[in-house]
Design brief:
Helix content: 25-40%
CATH class: Alpha Beta
Number of strands: 13
Largest sheet: 9 strands, mixed
CATH topology: Spore Coat Polysaccharide Biosynthesis Protein SpsA, Chain A
Order of helices and strands: EEEHEHEHHEEHEEEEHHEEH
CATH architecture: Alpha-Beta Complex
Structural class: alpha/beta
Radius of gyration: 17 Å
Number of helices: 8
Number of domains: 1
CATH superfamily: Spore Coat Polysaccharide Biosynthesis Protein SpsA, Chain A
C-alpha cells in the first residue's frame, strides 16, 4: 500500500566507496551490497516509493556505471531517478548544493543509501512540519557515538548541539544521526558548494535554533552496513545467514 507524506523528492546519497567493508566492496559499490538478494539502494528506493516519493536524485562516484546498469536492467517502478555523477566527491553538503535546480522550491528528503529504515515516515515529516524548522534529522540511541553525528535534544524537539564524531568529553548524548533528514528549500543558501552537512551545516543550524530532531520510537529502527560486523548484524535482522 502506498502512503503519501506530501514530499515528492528525495536525494539519496550513494557515492560512498565503503572501504571499511574490505574485500566486499573491492569490485562492488557499497550501495549495491545485497540484503536478502536486493541491493540496499534498491531497498531504499522501494521504501521511498511506498511513502509517495516519485523523484529521486542519486549521487554516484565509485563504480557508477555498475549502479546505473543495474537499474536500467531492473528499474524500480514508481520513481524517476536523476543520476548525479560526481567525478570528485563533493561531500554531503556539496551534493545537495549541486542539486539546487533539481530541488527547485520543494521540501525534500535526504537519505543515506547504505542505511535501511523501518519507521513511520509520515510521523517523521509531521514532526518536522509542526516544529517549523529548516531541517529535521532522525535520531536513534547508540552506545558508541564516536563515529557518528551526535545531537543533544531539548524537550521541545529542538537540537541544541550537533557534533560530528565527538570525543567522550564533548557530549553525554547517545542520540546519533540515523541518516535520514527532511529539509526545507530555504536552507539551500546556507549550504556550501563542498563540504559535509554534519560538520558545515547542522552544527550552525542547531546553534541558531533551526534544527529539529525526531527520536525513533521503540518499534522503529535503522540498520547499517559500514563494517563486516554491521553487515552481519543487518543480514541477521533480515533472517539471512552471514
Amino acid at each position: 500500500m502506498t502512503r503519501d507524506v506530501g514530499i515528492g523528492k528525495a536525494i539519496v546519497l550513494a557515492a560512498g566507496v565503503g572501504s571499511r567493508l574490505g574485500t566486499i566492496t573491492r569490485d562492488l559499490p557499497k550501495c549495491m551490497v545485497e540484503i536478502d538478494g536486493i541491493p540496499v539502494l534498491e531497498r531504499n528506493l522501494r521504501w521511498l516509493v511506498e511513502w509517495g516519493v516519485r523523484d529521486a536524485a542519486v549521487n554516484l562516484h565509485y563504480l557508477a556505471d555498475e549502479v546505473v546498469g543495474h537499474f536500467i536492467d531492473d528499474p524500480v517502478a514508481g520513481v524517476d531517478i536523476f543520476w548525479s555523477h560526481e567525478t570528485d566527491l563533493l561531500g554531503t553538503a556539496g551534493t545537495v548544493a549541486s542539486l539546487r535546480e533539481w530541488i527547485d522550491a520543494e521540501p525534500f528528503l535526504l537519505v543515506y543509501a547504505d542505511n535501511l529504515f523501518s519507521l513511520d515516515l509520515d510521523a517523521f515529516v509531521s514532526v518536522h512540519r509542526r516544529a517549523g524548522q529548516l531541517v529535521t534529522v532522525a535520531l536513534f540511541e547508540r552506545e558508541d557515538v564516536s563515529a557518528s553525528g551526535v545531537a543533544e535534544l531539548a524537550d521541545d524537539g529542538r537540537v541544541i548541539t550537533f557534533i560530528e564524531k565527538p570525543s567522550a568529553a564533548e557530549t553525554q548524548s547517545r542520540l546519533v544521526n540515523a541518516g535520514l533528514l527532511v529539509l526545507e528549500p530555504d536552507v539551500l543558501p546556507l549550504i556550501p558548494e563542498r563540504g559535509d552537512l554534519s560538520t558545515d551545516v547542522l552544527p550552525r543550524l542547531s546553534s541558531e535554533g533551526a534544527l529539529g530532531g525526531y527520536r525513533l520510537r521503540a518499534h522503529e529502527r535503522v540498520l547499517w552496513i559500514d563494517t563486516p560486523k554491521d553487515l552481519e548484524r543487518t543480514l541477521s535482522a533480515f533472517g539471512v545467514p552471514a
